[in-house]
Amino acid sequence: MSTLRQFINPGAVRRLFDLTEDAQEYSAVVEEVSRNVVFRGTNLWILMFAIVICSVGLNVNSTAVIIGAMLISPLMGPIIGVGVGVGIFDTQLIRKGARNLLVAVVISVFSSALYFWITPLSEAQSELLARTTPTLWDVLIALFGGLAGIVAATRKEKTNVIPGVAIATALMPPLCTTGYGLATGQWAYFLGALYLFFINAVFISVSAFLLVRLLRFPRATFVDQVQERRVRWIVWIVVVITVIPSVWLAYTLVERTLFQRRAELFVAQEFDFKDSRVVEKRIDPRMDVRSIEVFLLGEPLDTMEVDHIKSRMARYGLDQAHLVVNQGRTSAQQIDVNALRSGILEELYKQNQEALRIKDERISELEGRLQRVSSTELPVRDILDELRAQHPDVEDFTLNRNVLYHVGNGPPDTALVAIARFKGRVKDTELDRMKAWLKARTRMDSVIVLVQ
To answer: Are the C-beta atoms of 400 and 377 separated by less than 8 Å?
Structure first.
């Protein structure tokens, strides 16, 4: 920490983030953290209710219910308490925080295990499975989430950051997933979820410790340099021990994802035949048993062609994978009927997609033409009724827009041509009045009136 202070000025950090810098206010922050550490009475009941809510959410795969449980859960209190206690060397706060955190963990795990032991819905849903394989990204979320929480606690104006940190770091769901693994005897789920909670708890505490030391909170007890150095070493050892498995898990996750993408691309490009189609593919991305199994229907591929496809696997980075090609009767016997139906429908959709696109474009073009024609239509019947009110001698009348070409090279023009037949002779003044009215009525600059 002394090396870090050489490059970062605590006063500048306080001014940058608008943090409190009064020693009395620091004491108030520590007192508030100490109050939130205790689990008894109201906090204990809230914890148990949150456990039930979160277990139900994981059981029915409801994200909204899980988020609600994380907002209710008071687990952040003892975790931040441990970090602050280590930062100010308050052994009483450390013991109290660790003891209450242990009580909360035990209550949470056994309560959720009891729920999952009773509930008839025992299948693991996606929300539950997502808490069984922690990675390096969970470390980053916990670290920066904890920093956000302790910064919010030291601000002069309090905000709603703590509930957001509780959601981001997800403390309650891993504990409930641990209970699920205990209730169903699935120890991989039990250990994975417990490790995820351990990551969150450790790095939230570490972030609180780092910020407390950076801002130079007043220490609760006098500590010599040897003891301070020993505490720092213990903190960093715990951090390294926690991070190493998550780095390995993150590496395997990235490797599996990349293998899955390469395998999908390989099957799509190398099994594109006219008389034979892929109706199902099974990709196993596990490092020890990486395999690609393809099911074909149609004209069978000969051995040389299959060997040629296998020889091209190295181009996709799949040289360590095992390829199995099932075709003919063997394929028809092993293939899943639902997968076959899905593959056929997908192929039909691809074949008809271009025809549907051309059809949609044609419909759009015709709709545009219809709209343009509709916008140029004249309400001749209405205009005739209005015209007869002014000129009762009109017997027949028609009206249309026409292109008017001039003699020479002048550009063509659009003119409104009206043809009318009157009962008797019509005066020129009446025709001029009719022409002026038609211009105003149709908003056309050029109007030609022809009399039969």
So the answer is: no
